[in-house]
Amino acid sequence: MPRITQEQKKLNREKIVQAAGEGFRLHGVDGIGIEELMKTAGMTHGGFYNHFSSKEDLAIEVYRQGFADSLNALAAIRKAHPRSARAALHDMVDGYVTAAHRDHPETGCASAALAVDAGRHGATSQAEYRRGLEGYFSAITEMVLDRAHQTGTEPTSAEAREQAVALFCQMVGALVVSRAVAEADPGLSDEVLTANRKQLRRS
What is the pLDDT of residues 65-117, one digit of tens each? Predict the structure, then answer.
């Protein structure tokens, strides 16, 4: 049989990470098996170990890629509002705390979809999740400081980080809680999103 090229191997790995990213977000890391993930990626179960040593190894890559994608999206929001950090913060909130994001975890932010998994899967998973969180906290802290500078106030770096941590955790929490009741009580789920979005825009 012809040997697979390095380019094809790279593409195959990307397909596996893509399938796992959607599968893990939708079902949880423990809620979907390697065989199903590989089938979704269009490959056989045995080919998995040409790319990853274990499911945990794959999960780490999903965390890494998921946060990278989210931080790139946040950077695009900041770039779209070069003169108003307040507008950028509102855009971030309005894009995150939404029914569309709630209803499609498979394509949404890894921070909300995989928070419980990171907590359950030990120090290695938590360390990767922490790196992603720090990326978010740092970016939002910069946005908070930019907003303060533009409005003539000067919080300390510690105060700005505190605001950033609280803001991001409220966004994630609102999404997680709204998902927890979305089928049982759609009205309450929408209320959770609306109330938190309004409060976050005031912060």
Answer: 999 999 999 999 999 999 999 999 999 999 999 999 999 999 999 999 999 99
> In whole angstroms, what is the distance from residue 91 CA to residue 99 CA?
15
Q: Are 157 and 140 in contact (CB under 8 A)?
A: no
The architecture of the domain spanning 54-202 is: Orthogonal Bundle (1.10)
Between CA 112 and CA 140 the distance in angstroms is 16
**Residue that the structure tokens 């003169």 belong to:** 83
Q: Are 150 and 85 in contact (CB under 8 A)?
A: yes
Segments making up each domain of the chain, as ranges: 54-202
Q: At residue 1, does pLDDT exceed 70? A: no
pLDDT for 57: 95
Contact 122, 60 (CB under 8 A): no
Kindly give the residue spans of alpha helices, DSSP state H, lying in the chain. Answer: 6-27, 34-40, 55-80, 85-96, 99-103, 110-113, 115-120, 122-151, 157-180, 186-202
How confident is the model over 125-170, as pLDDT tens digits? 999 999 999 999 999 999 999 999 999 998 999 999 999 999 999 9
Token pair belonging to 139 = 């970016």
Q: How big is the CA angle at 104 (ends 99 and 11), to the nearest 5 degrees?
A: 150
pLDDT in the model for residue 203:
81
One-letter amino acid of 196: N
Angle, in degrees to the nearest 10, between helices 6-27 and 55-80: 90
